[in-house]
Specification:
Elements: H1 8-16, E1 23-28, H2 31-44, H3 48-54, E2 55-59, H4 65-72, E3 82-87, H5 98-102, E4 109-116, H6 125-133, E5 135-139, H7 147-157, E6 161-162, H8 164-174, H9 178-191, E7 198-199, H10 201-208, H11 216-225, H12 228-240, H13 247-264, H14 272-279, H15 288-296, H16 299-316, H17 326-338
Parallel strand pairs: 1-4, 1-5, 2-3, 3-4, 6-7
Pfam families: DNA_pol3_delta (PF06144)
Domain DNA polymerase III delta N-terminal: 24-138
GO biological process, one term: DNA-templated DNA replication
C-alpha cells in the first residue's frame, strides 16, 4: 500500500501536538508552505533560552552535506531537542549522502531540509530513507481556480469573511504567489475598521488598489454575459492604467477561463456541483460563470477563442506585431470573442 502523503495542515497539526519527527524534507515549487512549516518549527519547538544553544540555521550555498550531517549528530544542550534548519538546500551537492545519517538518526535532533524550486527524484534511496523515519512533503503550486478558496480559508482562520467578489478580485490581481497574497491579506486585516469582520469589494479597491468596477474579474463577467459596452469600458480603463492591469495577466486569466470552459462541456453532470467537481473547484459558486458561458458559447466557438487568446499573447510579445499597442490587442481580442 502506498504511504499516505501528509498535507501542510496535517504536519502543522502534528507539530502543535508536539509530535516531532527526526527529519522534515520540505520540497517543491511553492515556497509558501515550505516556509510555513519551517518557520513554525523554528519559532515553537524550542524556548527562547533553548534556541541560544540548540537552534542552527544554515544555507545550502554555504555548507556541504558533511556539515549538515555533523550538525545533526550533535546532542542538545540543556534541552530535549536541537533543531537544524537547512535553507535553500537545493544548492547542496551530494544530498543523497544524507541517507547514511537517516539509517540511524538522533531522535533528539529535528532536521528540517528546505529544498525549493524542485523535488527529489523519488526513485532515489534518500526518498525511502526520509519516508521511513520522517516526513517527505512536496509543496505544489496552487491552481488559479483554487485561489478564492485559499483566500476564504486563510481569512476564516483569522475570524474574517470575504465577499465572493472580493476574493475573486484579489485572486485575479495577485495570482498564485501565495507569499505575496498572504501579505495583501494581512494588509487588509490591519486596515479593516474596528469591529468589522467582512471584506467587501470596496475595501479591496481602497486598500489594494484594484478598481471594483474595472478589473479582470469584471471583464470575464462581461464576456460571459456578452456585455459589449461593459467589456469595452474595462479595456479602455486597462489601456489608461497599464501598470495595474498588465496584458499578460489578463490574457493568462482569460486563457484559464476558456480552457476550463472547454473542459466543462465534457462534464457528466451540467450543474454547479457537477462542474465544480469536474474542474476541481472548491465551491459550486465558482462554477456559475461556466454554466452561463456554456449557454452563450458553443464548443467550436470556445476552441476558436482559445486560439485567439494564444494569438493575442504572441502579439503582446512582439510576434507578427509591428505597431499594435496592448490596448489595441485586447480590444481586437474582445471583439473576436464577442462576435
Amino acid at each position: 500500500m502506498a504511504k499516505q502523503e501528509l498535507s501542510c495542515d496535517d504536519i502543522l497539526k502534528e507539530l502543535r501536538a508536539k509530535q516531532y519527527r527526526p527529519i522534515y524534507y520540505l520540497m517543491g515549487e511553492e515556497s509558501y508552505y515550505i516556509d510555513l512549516i519551517a518557520d513554525y518549527i523554528t519559532d515553537n519547538v524550542l524556548s527562547e533560552t533553548e534556541k541560544e544553544f540548540n537552534l542552527t540555521v544554515v544555507y545550502g550555498a554555504d555548507v556541504d552535506i558533511a556539515t549538515v550531517i555533523n550538525a545533526a549528530k550533535r546532542y542538545p544542550m540543556m534541552s530535549e531537542y536541537q533543531v537544524v534548519i537547512v535553507k535553500e538546500a537545493q544548492a547542496i551537492r551530494n544530498m543523497e549522502e544524507l541517507s547514511f545519517y537517516l539509517q540511524k538518526p538522533l531522535n533528539s535532533t529535528i532536521l528540517v531540509i528546505c529544498h525549493k524550486h524542485g523535488t527529489l527524484d523519488k526513485r532515489k534511496k534518500l526518498v525511502a530513507e526520509v519516508e521511513k523515519v520522517g516526513i517527505l512533503f512536496e509543496s505544489k503550486k496552487i491552481k488559479d481556480s483554487q485561489l478564492p478558496a485559499f483566500i476564504n480559508s486563510y481569512m476564516k482562520r483569522k475570524g474574517i469573511d470575504m465577499e465572493p467578489k472580493a476574493s475573486a478580485m484579489l485572486a485575479d490581481f495577485v495570482g498564485t504567489d501565495l507569499s505575496r497574497l498572504t501579505g495583501e491579506l494581512e494588509k487588509l486585516i490591519i486596515t479593516l475598521p474596528a469591529g468589522q469582520k467582512r471584506v467587501t469589494p470596496e475595501q479591496i479597491e481602497k486598500n489594494i488598489g484594484i478598481s471594483k468596477d474595472y478589473n479582470n474579474f469584471e471583464l470575464r463577467s462581461a464576456l460571459v454575459e456578452k456585455d459589449i459596452l461593459k467589456a469595452n469600458k474595462i479595456i479602455k480603463y486597462f489601456e489608461e492604467n497599464p501598470k495595474t492591469n498588465p496584458i499578460q495577466m489578463t490574457l493568462s486569466l482569460l486563457f484559464n477561463f476558456y480552457s476550463n470552459l472547454m473542459l466543462s462541456y465534457y462534464s457528466p453532470e451540467k450543474t454547479e456541483q457537477g462542474i465544480a467537481s469536474w474542474l476541481g473547484l472548491k465551491s459550486p459558486w465558482a462554477a456559475r460563470d461556466y454554466l452561463t458561458a456554456m449557454r452563450r458559447y458553443n464548443g467550436v466557438k470556445t476552441m476558436q477563442i482559445i486560439g485567439e487568446i494564444r494569438y493575442a499573447d504572441a502579439k503582446s510579445k512582439g510576434i507578427n506585431n509591428a505597431s499594435m499597442s496592448d490596448g489595441d490587442i485586447l480590444r481586437e481580442l474582445v471583439f473576436k470573442i464577442l462576435h
